## 1
Amino acid sequence: MKVLFAFIAIFGFSSAASLSEEFGYVGDNHSWSLSCNASGYVLKSQYPVTRFFEAGAASSVTRERETLYLGRSCDASSTTMGEGKWCWANGGFFAEFETHRISFPRQEVICPGGGDDSLACGC
């Protein structure tokens, strides 16, 4: 009986922790969580993402947890890649920036509470 209670306590705590932020999206070989606000969708990487930015002698590397903002007017913004655009099609959705493109194949942006406007951003 004590083993059963210990199992329930451990499982209960681990499942409660996993519910706090679900990383159900995969793009650019990274896990992302999705949330929504009045401006659109917000995707946050689970772990730091390392990116190389080619600029000759001024090339740089960033390593941080990234945030992608996908706006209702099909605009995109990234904490590391700047401004861009995004769209969706039957094969998934992607965000495109000047030097990078992050694809989320076979996935759709769906807000938990509904009110999705992603149809306006078709490719």
Note: The radius of gyration is 18 Å.
## 2
Amino acid sequence: MIQRFIELGEGYSDIYEWIELLKTNEHRFHRVCILTSVSNDVKKLSVALILKPVDESKFTPIYFCREGIEYSAVKTSKRIQLVEKTLQERKYSPHRLEVKHSSYFAEPALYHQYLIGLFRLHHILPPLS
């Protein structure tokens, strides 16, 4: 089983693309995660959409918008409101995890491996087979 991150951008339009991927791939939906990380005392949110493999394929894509949404307890970001509204409409519950910020890692591939390990630990991703 290959589990790989496909990074979208951090911008507003990337959230729309992420939401469209969710809507058009509902038959493959597995899980959604909202990740919180902190860097320089600023909380950032990431969203991950995990899809089931296609037919006989052993590839599990994880569509990811990394740390592009600032978290505020006072005012919720429009981007996270869009994500949460889309999930509520479909009666999906996101897994929420606090994770290390990607800046702790020398390269994105190491950060992705860290997240895959956490996802497996929390039974969000199935074990390798």
Note: Helices lie at 12-24, 78-89, 108-121.
## 3
Amino acid sequence: MKKKFTYALGEILIVIVGISIAFTMNKCSENSKSEALKQQYLENIKSDIEIDKKILNQYFNPLIKKLKL
């Protein structure tokens, strides 16, 4: 009877450890995806700012020249 109880306890412990490892791996994967998405957003924002800066310079340069006249 004691061996069966010890065996059952060992099996439960193995299952708990396995589930804990699976949750940890899933969380790590989610963090990795989140970080990659964050990097992509930052790159897109940087690109958009550069494009907007060029457009603004195209409009402001002629205005500044006219104001100097």
Note: DSSP finds one helix and no strands in the chain.
